[in-house]
Amino acid sequence: MPGLENIRIVVADDHPIVREGLIKILESETDIEIIAQVGSGAEVISFVNQHKPDILLLDIEMPGMNGVEVIHKLKDAGNTVRVIIFTAFNTDERIVSAVKARARGYLLKGAPRDEIITVVRTVNKGGSSLQADVASKLMHQMRRGGEQLTPRELDVLHLLSKGLTNKGIASNLYISERTVKFHLSSVFNKLDVESRTEAVTTAVRKGLISI
Known about the structure:
Arc Repressor Mutant, subunit A
């Protein structure tokens, strides 16, 4: 029966100290079992698809692919694991991207121990949970139009329309390639597209950029 078995959790973060701290908090509860800790997006997908945990606690910035990309790949594989984003980032853009990708919870690193445990149990029961300040940012973003692209996303789209690679975009905007990938993932979500070409075509059609 539900509630009698341990909540099986995978903790995914590329910083060992963060993982160890979170695991220490979670393992103090008798109804929670940590079945793995992983440090990259590829490891997350492989392990979660193989072992089918109940909960995935996922950092939004992972080596190889970001958390939003990981969620989409798991969903494409038919995996129904409940995802809680656990991150230091609380910008509107990141929150909206994660929630739209069907994350069930969004915790900021540094959240109180009791709040972490409560969110895990709430999400495991099929609910969803956002910290108060995170929920406030999300509602603010939704009120002003969740589909709007940020100025930086428009910059990325403009350079994408010029045929630049991720490396080229990163060089032009003085940001990392990982950050470019994050922006592109957010753009794809907001425009509801699946490819770079489709993103540019849709953006031109909507009058967001010109080529």
